[in-house]
Amino acid sequence: MAASLHLNVGSLNSPLNLKSVAKQSPRPTRIRCASPAVAAPPKRYSITLLPGDGIGPEVISVAKIVLKLAGSLEGIEFSFQEMPMGGAALDLTGIPLPEETISAAQKADAVLLGAIGGYKWDKNEKHLKPETGLLQLREGLKVFANLRPATVLPQLVDSSTLKKDIAEGVDLMVVRELTGGIYFGKPRGFGTNEKGEEIGFNTEVYATYEIDRIARVAFEIARKRRGQLCSVDKANVLEASMLWRKRVTTIAADYPDVELSHMYVDNAAMQLVRYPKQFDTIVTNNIFGDILSDEASMITGSIGMLPSASLGESGPGLFEPIHGSAPDIAGQDKANPLATILSAAMLLKYGLGESNAAKRIENAVLDTLNKGFRTGDIYSAGDKLVGCKEMGEEVLKSVDSPVGAAI
Ligand SMILES: NC(=O)C1=CN([C@@H]2O[C@H](COP(=O)(O)OP(=O)(O)OC[C@H]3O[C@@H](n4cnc5c(N)ncnc54)[C@H](O)[C@@H]3O)[C@@H](O)[C@H]2O)C=CC1
Ligand SMILES: CC(C)CC(=O)C(=O)O
């Protein structure tokens, strides 16, 4: 059975033109997702690698080699600069996102991140947590649009926790707002209430321009997919969601070809496991997108399969698997590197506009799965169980298969 891997917004041959989003925005905005349209795009790119913590270094070292080979087969050369981030940076420098790291990331053509976090730093004060470094990185790169595709591959349908007939054919895209909402809103902190009890508090806040720009990205994506956009919010309770729904509805007027629906997040969480095929493109805020994309990942078989691309108005994109640092399996060569390898494909496609090299990686991943290689998280009886490194080696072997080859 021919498999297709929809890491993209539509088909691999119809890249999303995010620049058109900018033109229609009431607040001028230009999203860079590919090299500027000058005569000949540079074939040499600088990539900042942020391995981070836990399984991060394991999956990044595999993805780096795959990226390098796919690039070289397409006449692309990379210079990689590895920088500390998260817990690794805390141990080295005392802070989770050193100035040198953010500065290198801002100057690069694209940034590939593994994952951050771990038990060792869990009790740190908030400003000294690895997670704070990741939020600072996203903020520093101004990457507000986080694309998280979740596709059930025929090869992995038995790895899904859902029944085959429910999981089969699922192909959805979560468009998550990434630099606003409760992860960034102020006021936030700790204090005491009127009874003298300790409290912790955060603020869910969205400005119109933040909703408008992510809504436009989502409408553009939906337009290039199956033309359906579901906006997920909690507008029955939260003011920030009420504004969200109002603005998304307003923006919809510019996209008459896209069918817009609205869903409360609690229902969306339920619908995702009840009948996930009803979803094409989902647009939602930062926290709901974080949670729903993790949930969607299990429909596809494993969180170890889901890549992501985070794009901003200008500057380099940030590409990372959606999973965390998985401290429970770190250092054991058990991690599934495919989410990071596929993030490298998204980097090529959306970050650099190098679709052929991206396709080489996507095909290689499918080829490797077709040959039956599986890490533990997607293993079923009869498969060939491999570790992180061997999975990477198998993908590497398939990378030089001809672009566009039927798999
Ligand atoms: N983007 C990032 O760097 C993120 C970092 N984190 C951090 O990661 C740490 C662990 O968080 P958790 O909630 O446990 O989430 P997690 O995603 O790290 O792990 C959840 C479960 O999925 C498994 N898993 C994750 N990635 C896998 C892979 N590639 N292959 C096979 N199995 C995989 C883990 O073994 C674990 O059982 C925390 O410190 C958290 O803050 C969590 C989410 C995102
Ligand atoms: C680790 C956090 C900063 C956020 C998170 O879980 C994510 O964005 O995936």
UniProtKB/TrEMBL annotation:
Keywords annotated in UniProt: Amino-acid biosynthesis, Branched-chain amino acid biosynthesis, Leucine biosynthesis, Magnesium, Manganese, Metal-binding, NAD, Oxidoreductase
Look up the record and name the cofactor or cofactors this protein needs: Mg(2+); Mn(2+)
UniProt record, GO biological process? L-leucine biosynthetic process
Recorded catalytic reaction(s): these are:
(2R,3S)-3-isopropylmalate + NAD(+) = 4-methyl-2-oxopentanoate + CO2 + NADH
Reported function:
Catalyzes the oxidation of 3-carboxy-2-hydroxy-4-methylpentanoate (3-isopropylmalate) to 3-carboxy-4-methyl-2-oxopentanoate. The product decarboxylates to 4-methyl-2 oxopentanoate.
The first-level EC class reads oxidoreductase
Q: Which organism is it from?
A: Hibiscus syriacus
**Residue ranges of every copy of the Isopropylmalate dehydrogenase-like domain listed in the record:** 46-395
Taxonomic superkingdom? Eukaryota
Quote the Gene3D superfamilies the UniProt record gives.
Isopropylmalate Dehydrogenase
Query: What is the free-text note on the cofactor?
Result: Binds 1 Mg(2+) or Mn(2+) ion per subunit.
Q: In the Enzyme Commission scheme, what number(s) does this protein have? A: 1.1.1.85
The entry's protein name is 3-isopropylmalate dehydrogenase
Q: Which SUPFAM superfamilies does the record cross-reference, listed alphabetically?
A: Isocitrate/Isopropylmalate dehydrogenase-like (SSF53659)
* Keyword Protein transport tagged: no
Q: Which InterPro entries match?
A: IsoCit/isopropylmalate_DH_CS, IsoPropMal-DH-like_dom, Isopropylmalate_DH
> Which PROSITE patterns does the record match to this protein?
IDH_IMDH (PS00470)
Q: Can you tell me which family this protein belongs to? A: Belongs to the isocitrate and isopropylmalate dehydrogenases family.
The positions making up the signal sequence are none
Pathway it works in: Amino-acid biosynthesis; L-leucine biosynthesis; L-leucine from 3-methyl-2-oxobutanoate: step 3/4
Q: Name one GO molecular function term.
A: magnesium ion binding
Subunit structure, briefly?
Homodimer.
